[in-house]
Specification:
The chain contains 1 helix and 14 strands. It is mainly β. The strands form 3 sheets. It has a 6-stranded antiparallel beta sheet, with no helix packed on it. It has a 6-stranded antiparallel beta sheet with strand order 4-13-6-7-8-9. Strands 2-3 form a two-stranded antiparallel sheet.
């Protein structure tokens, strides 16, 4: 499942996720090589859409934008636009890259529908087209997934799925792609991983998704760091 309320469409997709889970063994986050390019934000100030002097962009048109306020970045969805995830991407990064973000969670979040935070890797975009690896985490820890965005709106593929305990404010979500290997960590412990070659280049970014309940500010990021080497 990419979303808590969406079942995988084919037995083949479900089998692929089961196979991934079978060979996955928890591991600590690796020590990364020296960075050639970095970006960090604590999301100070207020912006809609998120820009930070042009560092962030969103050219997709069919997907919603990210905003920031009160030291937090979050989405701008109404919850009724389908898979119009809010996203923003950086630029100038090499293909081997890592991103991490500190989670901000409203303890009174509405439990009646899906809420996700997302780290994007190797993201490229143009009007009506976005390609990326989405590394998402549900607010309640019931899933942490790697999903490939294939370009067209609503066209994505499930690559791997893990599960963690209930998420808390201050938890750190990290995602790394090196070569064809994508790995995701919560507080430096591996949650899931996948191998895929469809997106060889692109830039890191952030994303958010929710259904039509609660508020965008219920679940977001309070800081973010990206690097490539």
């Amino acid at each position: 499942m990419k979303r808590r309320d969406l079942l995988l469409g084919t037995a083949g997709a479900a089998g692929a996720l089961a196979a991934t889970a079978a060979w996955l063994r928890p591991a600590a986050a690796p020590v990364l090589p020296p960075a050639k390019h970095t970006y960090r934000s604590d999301f100070a100030g207020t912006e809609a859409p998120l820009s930070e002097d042009g560092a962030w962009s969103n050219a997709g048109l069919d997907w919603t934008t990210v905003s920031k306020a009160n030291g937090m970045a979050c989405g701008t969805q109404t919850g009724s636009g389908g898979y119009n995830d809010s996203y923003a991407r950086l630029s100038g990064f090499g293909p081997n890259q890592a991103a991490s973000a500190v989670i901000a969670l409203n303890p009174g979040i509405d439990h009646s529908c899906s809420h996700e935070v997302e780290l994007l890797l190797r993201c490229t975009d143009a009007p009506h087209r976005v390609m990326a690896y989405e590394c998402n985490l549900s607010y309640d820890g019931t899933y942490c997934e790697i999903v490939a965005w294939n370009g067209k709106f609503g066209d994505f593929a499930y690559l791997a799925r893990g599960k963690v305990r209930r998420v808390r404010t201050g938890d750190v979500l990290k995602a790394i792609v090196q070569g064809s290997l994508i790995s995701v960590y919560l507080n430096d412990t591996e949650v899931t991983r996948a191998e895929d070659q469809r997106h060889p280049t692109g830039d890191p970014g952030i994303g958010f998704f929710r259904r039509a309940c609660g508020a965008n500010s219920d679940y977001g990021f309070s800081s973010y760091t990206a690097m490539s080497w």
